[in-house]
Amino acid sequence: MNRHYYISDNLDDLEQVEQELSESGIGIEQMHVLSDSDAELEEHRLHEVPSMMKKDVVHWGKIGLMIGAALAVLVLVVGYLSGWTQTAAGWIPVVFLAAVLLGFSLWESSFFGLQRPSGDVRRFQDNLQEGRHVFFVDVKPEQEPVLDMVVRHHPRLEIAGFGSAMPAWWLSIEQAWNRFRHMM
After folding, report:
1. Where are the chain's structural domains?
2. pTM reported for the whole predicted model
């Protein structure tokens, strides 16, 4: 999948684009609007970026997970080589310490990520501060012509680049969740 970024200053136009794409077979989960104008977004039927995704939690969480895993392995190796595992308590305290270090590193780095804007927000910070909105769409290769056709009918959309899309497995989970919610 590929991610296409567009910039617009008109939420009504973006709402129309989203509706046309949805009617053409592109799922609502594949489209997002990033904006600093939360009050304006509330007045439109747009699939906005969740507030958690505006932060860099995932990126820093991965870093914390790697650091925590390295610390956990280090504790396990030192515990084994030093003979601590040969005591009456055995492996339990060593494994517990390794798990605590792993969890603490993940937790702490995620808090660090909460204080930083995500890559998309940093990339379009100037546009967002000017009151403009970023519309991005994740499309499969066979959906590219549909996207091009719809975008051509909206001259106010500015092409702002390309990027890597959300993983297909995550998209499937989000689509299944939305189907489940609508059944309730």
Report:
1. 2-54+134-183, 57-114
2. 0.75
